[in-house]
Each structure stands twice: as structure tokens, then as C-alpha cells.
């Protein structure tokens, strides 16, 4: 029996079809669903907010934020044009022509990064995947925090190894991190968006902000 057609979210978001692809950015990973749930839980706070999703790929969190009234920019690596095209397709499918898509490569000070306006919220779903990328991600986020010291990074992180930790890098870049229990925003259910979550996964919801030691 083939898979049933996905149902639209209550917000009107239509899921981008997931195509088998060697690049893992082409899938809706469990972290994206949990981050989308956090956004939906806080949807009344989103209208008018400037929101940037980094490493967006299929862009579920960013698309949902735009549907909830945020002014959204989607970004993925400037070195992966197919990922940027997936972002654009998600916008087209969800009738969001106002959402910009830009190429940002973590750790690179590019013209597109310099041109970004100050953001209120940065979204990052499972971007802490490869340890060698962690510091490049945080250096990019730190640059954006200089534009608006009150910006928050909302990030979901799937724990894959006890040896991988963000704590030392967060301290190095003078960032504070608050762990948000999944049950506080109804993300501890087993059937979030028709996915068996988080039973077979360990997912953490993090809110990261700039420290006061500047």
C-alpha cells in the first residue's frame, strides 16, 4: 500500500514532496517538525517579526512562520544551488512570493550576509549535524546578533552522540542557551505531524541569545 497524501497543516502550509536525494537537506527531519510546533505554539507573537531560517532546505519552520505573518527570509548554502531551489519551490507551493531566498554559507562573510536587515528570530532546524560546522554556524549567528543584540536563535537539535556538545562553543561566542522542555509546547506527543516523535529520537529545543559580557 502506498503512502497516503499528506494533509495540510492547520496554518495552510502544504508540505514539499520529499524526494530521495543524496543530500540530507532534502528531507523533513524530525527536528523541523518540533521547531514548527514551537512556532505554532507561539504563532500570536510572529506577525511582523523579522525571521531568518538558516540551513532551510525544505523550509518547514520558515514557511510556517511566514504563514503566521512573520517577514521571512529563507537561506541555505550558496554552494548548494539545488537547496536554494528547494526553498523557492516551497515558497511557490505555499503561495508566498514575498519570501526572499538567499544563499548564505556558514562562516563566510558574504555580501548577502552583510546586506541582511536586523532579525528578530533566527530559525535553525537540525543544523548542528556535522561537528566541524558548529563553529561556522555560531560565528554566522554571532554576526547577525551584532545587528540586533536582542535577536534569538530558535533551534532544534537531535542528539546523536554524547561526545558532541555546544556548551564550550556557546561560551566562546558569549551566548546564553535555554533548553525548552518539549512538553511545554505540546511537542512530546508521539504523532506530531503524523510522525512517531520523539519516541525514537532525542530532540532538544534551544533558545540561544547573546550574552551580557560584551
Fold and architecture overview:
This protein has 214 residues and is α/β, with parallel strands linked by helices. It has helices at residues 30-41, 60-67, 81-93, 111-115, 134-147, 167-172; strands at 50-54, 71-76, 100-103, 121-125, 152-158, 175-180, 203-210. The chain has a 7-stranded mixed sheet with strand order 3-2-1-4-5-7-6. Helix 2 (60-67) links the parallel strand 1 (50-54) and strand 2 (71-76). Helix 1 packs parallel to helix 2. It is globular and about 40 Å long. The termini are far apart.
Topology diagram in text:
Blueprint: H1 30-41, E1 50-54, H2 60-67, E2 71-76, H3 81-93, E3 100-103, H4 111-115, E4 121-125, H5 134-147, E5 152-158, H6 167-172, E6 175-180, E7 203-210
Parallel strand pairs: 1-2, 1-4, 2-3, 4-5
Antiparallel strand pairs: 5-7, 6-7
Helix pairs in contact: 1-2
Protein name: Histone-arginine methyltransferase METTL23
GO molecular function: protein-arginine omega-N asymmetric methyltransferase activity
Enzyme class: transferase
Report the radius of gyration as a whole number of Å. 16 Å
* Uncertain residue segments: 1-8, 15-22
Order of helices and strands: HEHEHEHEHEHEE
Overall geometry: globular
Count of helix runs: 6
Mean pLDDT: 83
Structural class: alpha/beta
- Beta-strand content: 15-25%
Question: Which keywords apply here?
Answer:
single chain; 214 residues; alpha/beta; seven-stranded mixed sheet; disordered N terminus
